[in-house]
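Good morning C.,

I know you're traveling, so I'll keep this short. The sequence:
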Amino acid sequence: MDRLSVAIIGCGPAGLAAGLLLARQGHEVAIFDQFASPGPVGSGLMIQPTGLAVLDQLGLAEEVVRRGARIDALQGIEEHGRCVLDAPYAALGLQGAFGIGIHRASLFDALHAAALRQSGITIHAGHAVTGSTCDASGRRLTFADREPSASFDLVIDASGWRTHFDPAPKGILPFGALWASLPVEPGDPFAGNLLEQRYRRAAQMAGVLPIGTRTEVSMPEVAFFWSLKVEDHAAWCDTPLEEWKAEVSRLWPDLEGLLARITTREQLTFARYAHRTHPGPVGERMIAIGDAWHSASPQLGQGANMALLDAWSLARGLAEGRTLAEKLRLAAGWRRDHVWLYQWVTRLFTPLYQSESRYLPAIRDRALAPLSRRWPAKGIQARLMSGLFGFPLAPLGLAAPDYEGLAASASRISLAASALPQS
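The tokens, ready to paste straight into the viewer:
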């Protein structure tokens, strides 16, 4: 394989994973991030079997399993107590399968530390990329307040859905979410192995996701989230915090103790989402991956997992293609069907859980929920929620990880760490 000089825009999961994979192939990788100190943005996320398969290849699966929280099912209950979403990983038919709830900081730390250890990677902070130019010598990046970069053989856009390289409208979704990472205390009435959600029709949704520990000595945490229309965010900022807490508690009374740990509005981050697909993810000496290529609502929890699959596909394309154009065409081609499928599935599913509709939640509760408990719908639902619908792993030469081995190894490491004397 020819050794390429590669520039990656964005130091998130997509950019870091791509950097690691390409540096291990012998390429020279430079990662550019706009922040002075690159770090995670947001609270919790789900690592699905798809993402865990890539992390396993990177040698990071054990660390992620150990630092995250094992999730055995997704459970959603409507305001009157009826279970309308029950998606256990056991329905996948994979021995010992589970998901991982994890703080974005924990995933970032694992990938970032590996990148710092890997030779062939340099990280340039404080570089806000505004565009690029391409000529016979390669592609150069342009910056907001710096001279253009040297020429690169390949530029990878991993800058997220706000990318400068797709001028089309971003497709901002009407609903966003308030997020907070909160400590778990003894007696909290939440299952430690479930992503739990509560719905009032589709207009209001509260959720609790266990996300493990950020450090070896920190307390376990959960990610709390509350859906909120983008146009209502300004009004929420003017609403007394206790008044908002009371509204949330009316939907889910068991949240009262958790809400008491939110003492300032600054603990909550408002996240906006976009549903978009870049029509041309491959250009001359350039490719978009992750949210820079495709973004959607977080309803199915696929964002980081799709990004990791994109990074793996890119590395495989660079290894197997003969020319750079063919390498990029292969990388995008292996992912195109799965991306298309989940863009449409997410577009169809999201209004069932986040919309002003009165009819769609009724269809969800009275028709789709009973149907999902029957064969084969139960297995199909589990594959949809886990990211395995459409069989994305085999075309990329990936296999599901050894869940039982990962769980046992992570448990042994945790026990060994707990046995160390505390300073």
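Safe travels,
E.
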